[in-house]
């Protein structure tokens, strides 16, 4: 990569403190865009400002992916995931998906022990429509 577009000093290392500092930096509104525009202003380039911001965003996404995938890169190729981990995580995720599906149904149904039964004896509906022609 050319010397004038190496990126932020925060992404020179994929250590945990750098990763978390970069995530905080990216989470602050408009700071990333401001830094990208200032970099573009003072760097000799043939890109327009929108291409420059897109390049910076791609670089940031690749850095986050590199940090996120670091444990996978350190794992030996072909090493199986232990059955205990698969079983525990699989059961937890299955329970979570079932709760996402059936949780609202149970929360608002009569099966819920904290809900109170509302007995409706009658109901009425009034409907009026007025059209003014001016």
Keyphrases for this structure?
mainly alpha, 55% helix, 134 residues
Biggest pleated-sheet summary: none
Task: Briefly note the structural class of the backbone.
Answer: mainly alpha
The averaged pLDDT comes out at 86
Radius of gyration from the CA trace? 28 Å
Share in β-strands: under 5%
| Total of helices | 5
Unreliable spans? none
General shape = flat
SSE string, helices as H and strands as E: HHHHH
Q: How many E strands?
A: 0
Helix content: 55-70%
Distance between the termini: 69 Å
Account of the protein in words:
By secondary structure, the protein is an all-alpha fold. It has a domain at 3-74. Helix content is 55%, strand content 0%. It has 5 helices and no strands. It has helices at 16-27, 31-42, 49-68, 70-74, 83-107. Helix 2 (31-42) crosses helix 3. The N and C termini lie far apart (69 Å). The mean pLDDT is 86.
């Amino acid at each position: 990569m050319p010397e004038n577009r190496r990126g932020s000093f925060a992404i020179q290392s994929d250590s945990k403190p750098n990763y978390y500092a970069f995530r905080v930096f990216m989470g602050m509104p408009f700071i990333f865009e401001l830094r990208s525009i200032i970099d573009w202003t003072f760097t000799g380039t043939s890109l327009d400002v929108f291409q420059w911001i897109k390049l910076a965003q791609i670089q940031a996404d690749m850095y986050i992916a590199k940090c996120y995938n670091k444990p996978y890169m350190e794992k030996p190729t072909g090493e199986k995931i232990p059955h205990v981990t698969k079983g525990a995580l699989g059961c937890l995720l299955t329970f979570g998906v079932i709760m996402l599906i059936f949780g609202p149904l149970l929360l608002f149904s009569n099966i819920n022990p904290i809900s109170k039964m509302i007995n409706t004896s009658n109901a009425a509906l009034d409907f009026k429509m007025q059209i003014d022609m001016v």
